[in-house]
Design goal:
single chain; 406 residues; alpha/beta; Aspartate Aminotransferase, domain 1; Aspartate Aminotransferase, domain 2; 2 domains; four-stranded antiparallel sheet
């Protein structure tokens, strides 16, 4: 298809685009109608036939493998390296605790990480006495400055470096491969939070040099909430510990009646999953890769995010915090004189856009998906331009339409 024709087909397959300008995929993306229909079909089956049949359970295991394979295709891994999880945070927890920690060991992260990555690290510090170091840099710092901050933070005894592929705050693409090379020199493994990368930009986990990579289903992969995946490098799997038990993590009984663990990443699948969501996740990612195509996805994300960045940067009184040369699908900005929450509320009312704030920065963050149109971007930017030209309380009244019910 030509791009215009393909974009029309894509938008028709994402019904929620008709409800608002969807600019919050960094939190939750629009779900394809095909995936929602597949989930509804499974829900109807469970309602009408039940969920307790052995055959249905065995079929569910195959559906889990389909979802795992879909993630592997997106991140550039193999099926045996991917475990299904309940969210990015779930994967980050499993990965963080997969090391054989001892008091005095050191973990390193950045001052820009999401709570989902910080939580397990603080737990390590508080429960086991692990030293926790931070690479401190500005959110739009150069790659060299970021690497220098990691060089200072990764001291003796470092076992783990946790870093985002794309910062959730400013949307900066991090120099993960360079950080991983430095970590390897110091004897540390690398865990990557891929929440704002997988499905937005090309991801090739092996080229990054990381040992673990955690992703969500509901953001740029457009799947249901409550699911995600964890990739573990095949070479790292033998030393990675699964600290939880689940019958899904084990293959069978041996001759003495003892459980036998899965030899691959499936041993990190610590519990069962909502079956309709498993199907929805596999269907959404399959829709992205086979119907839309990742080349189109990544190219359109870059084009629309770049368009928004350039237009916002030209508005007097607007400060864009996202570096133009190292951006994915997120654009974070401030409007002078405006509190971020108040500005976002006003923008939502004027442009019918759904976005979010970044509280640590008192800024607004928009997510530009491959389905966005130039008209939607321009409409939102026009709303920002209006706010930037006025102080709160001095805005011209919004246009309203009175409907009289007779």
């Amino acid at each position: 298809m030509a791009d215009a024709e393909k974009l029309a087909a894509v938008r028709a397959a994402l019904p929620s685009l008709a409800a608002a300008i969807q600019l919050n995929t960094g939190s939750v993306g629009p779900m394809p109608a095909d995936a929602a229909a597949a989930m509804a079909e499974i829900e109807a089956y469970e309602r009408d036939v039940g969920r307790a049949q052995l055959e249905y359970f065995l079929d569910t295991l195959q559906r889990i493998d389909e979802a795992r394979a879909a993630v592997a295709a997106v991140v550039g891994g193999d099926l045996d390296e991917v475990a299904l999880t309940h969210a990015t945070t779930d994967g980050l927890n499993l990965a963080t605790w997969s090391l054989d920690w001892r008091a005095g060991d050191r973990a390193v992260t950045t001052t820009h990480e999401h709570a989902g990555a910080l939580g397990p690290l603080y737990a390590l510090r508080d429960r086991l006495g692990i030293e926790l170091g931070f690479a401190d840099f500005d959110g739009d710092a150069s790659d060299d400055d970021i690497l220098a901050a990691f060089d200072r933070a990764i001291g003796p005894g470092a076992r783990l470096v946790t870093v985002s592929h794309v910062l959730w705050t400013t949307g900066t693409i991090m120099p993960v491969a360079r950080v991983a090379a430095l970590a390897e020199e110091r004897g540390a493994v690398v865990l990557v939070d891929g929440a704002q990368a997988a499905g937005a930009i090309p991801v090739a986990v092996r080229d990054l040099g990381a040992q673990m990579y955690s992703v969500p289903a509901q953001k740029w992969l457009l799947g249901p909430e409550g699911l995600g995946a964890l990739w573990l490098a095949r070479e790292f799997l033998p030393e990675a510990r699964s600290t939880f038990f689940s019958y899904l993590s084990w293959a069978s009984y041996d001759s003495r009646g003892a459980y036998q663990p899965q030899p691959d990443a499936r041993r990190f699948q610590v519990s069962n999953f909502h079956r309709p969501s498993i199907v929805g996740m596999a269907r959404s990612i399959g829709w992205l890769t086979m119907f839309v195509g990742l080349e189109f996805v990544h190219r359109r994300v870059a084009e629309m995010a770049g368009r928004a960045h350039d237009a916002l940067s030209e508005i007097s009184g607007v400060t864009v915090l996202t570096p133009r040369d190292r951006m994915a699908g997120l654009v974070t900005f401030r409007i002078a004189g405006w509190d971020a929450k108040a500005a976002l509320d006003e923008l939502a009312a004027r442009t019918h856009a759904i976005a979010r704030t970044v509280p640590p920065l008192d800024a607004i963050r928009i997510s530009l998906g491959f389905w966005a149109t130039a008209e939607e971007v321009d409409r939102f930017v026009d709303g920002v331009r209006v706010l930037a030209g006025h102080a709160p309380g001095t805005l011209p009244p919004r246009r309203t339409l009175t409907i009289i019910d007779r």
